[in-house]
Amino acid sequence: MRRRTAPTPPAESAPGTRPLRADAERNRQRLIAAARELFARRGLGVTLDDIAHHAGVGVGTAYRRFANREALVEAVFEDQAQALIARAEHALDHADPWDGLAEFFQASARHFAEDRGLREVLLHGTHGRTRMAALRERLTPAVGALLVRAQEDGRLRDDVEATDFPLIQLMLGVVTEHSREVAPELWQRYSTLILDGLRAERAAPTPLPHRALDLDEFDQTMARHHSS
Amino acid sequence: MRRRTAPTPPAESAPGTRPLRADAERNRQRLIAAARELFARRGLGVTLDDIAHHAGVGVGTAYRRFANREALVEAVFEDQAQALIARAEHALDHADPWDGLAEFFQASARHFAEDRGLREVLLHGTHGRTRMAALRERLTPAVGALLVRAQEDGRLRDDVEATDFPLIQLMLGVVTEHSREVAPELWQRYSTLILDGLRAERAAPTPLPHRALDLDEFDQTMARHHSS
DNA sequence: GACCAAGCGGAGATGCCATCTCCACTTCCG
DNA sequence: CGGAAGTGGAGATGGCATCTCCGCTTGGTC
I need a labelling partner for A103 at 20 to 30 A (CA). Which of B1, B14, B136, B208 fits? Predict the structure, then answer.
């Protein structure tokens, strides 16, 4: 809905509600921007207090504007989710069915790697009974069509299905989660490996685009994190 | 160290400390058993209070016997980790290098799927500066040898390394984590897929041992969970 | 330029939950 | 049977996120 660069600050609210005062609307935008950044970096678990301070407004303002975290999540991710769906639909137009699938696969993985919040919204699904759920449900059939097309072309193994896709992305997400500081692009290594597993057949392995962690990096990776 | 079925209840403690009174030792065993069960089912995050009640003893007893969760974790998992290491070392003796690797790969995945605590101890590594870290460090070279052997035999792709193994297991772990109640063996599907990615070459795909989730199951899977 | 509704900030109330202590009581064992 | 060892569990402690409240500021309107 909202275009990132929309030149129209006001309007947009539900009919019947009067528009926000200019300064309030400005703060609202700041909150969304701050939330976008913190969600991307630290996941949906960040506190509204954090977001408020990062936006340079008081906590009260945050709670006045967004009843709960849900509302803020929707305001932040509606765009990004739509974009991903669009991307899946465009991939169907790719000349080569396998390449269309593979590119979308990698592009999704990149989105999810770069935005922890997006990953949590679409793949962890906790934040459930919202508009986000509806978006997730639009993604699955688009992916399904991509898979079928590549299977009919004979290059994707026959036994994968639409629900496999998000679960595989979920698996890649955990690599990103752990290796974030040490090798933020490590996911590429495993996504290529998995794509090789998805091919109907192949002679040589596809070269992996990222080297393996060495033992030090591995230790650092394993030593991080507890929760999420 | 401790044999599960050891007929000798006492002894074993550090030299210089007198052995525990019989009832105390009994409670200690109960605590370890309860911890083993709860760690396996709900992960290392369970509270000592929970464990104590589950063991049928008071919380005070738990804290008197184990200074912190670490100590309890070690008492519970030393065995299991040793067993996994032994398994890796035995896999080197398998007649077929690839089969030795693949069997160990699947066996590990199964261990990790069936015991969330083990998974967290060996793959999440948070619980860091303990004897567990040392065990993790014994596992890596054993796995490395398995990989090299399969590569020399020409059936494992050349570009995988020892550190890839635990990261892949970590990825499988997240599937188990999410699908636990819906399809606890779903990891088999993805572990087979990944093994197909690890092969140096192949004609047809290996049949996947577990069907994909249907849309309902998928929704349930995604709807669970938040933390840990 | 003055008025007041709208908005602001942020200290602190509230609630939650895990860790760990303490001591009056019970049990073991020599 | 006596004293040392062990027990249990209520509650103290501390951390942490959510959300409220109200005295103060600001925007915009006449």
Answer: B208
Per residue in B189-209, pLDDT tens? 999 999 999 999 999 999 999
Q: Which residue has the higher pLDDT, A13 or B131?
A: B131
A206 has a chain B CB within 8 A of its CB: no
Q: Report the pLDDT value the prediction gives residue B127, as an integer from 0 to 100.
A: 52
Q: Looking at the complex, does the CB of residue B66 fall below 8 Å from at least one CB of chain A?
A: no
Q: Select the CATH number that applies to the domain covering B71-223 from these four: 1.10.10.10, 3.40.30.10, 3.90.170.10, 1.10.357.10.
A: 1.10.357.10
Residues 95-134 of A with CB under 8 A from B: 123-126, 128
CATH number given to A75-214? 1.10.357.10
Q: How far apart are CA A213 and CA B17, in angstroms?
A: 44
Half-sphere exposure (CA, 13 Å, Cβ side) for A211? 6
Domain B22-66 classification at class level: mainly alpha
Mean pLDDT of chain A: 88
Residue pair A94/A53 in contact by the 8 Å Cβ criterion: no
Query: CA-based Rg of chain B, rounded to a whole angstrom?
Result: 20
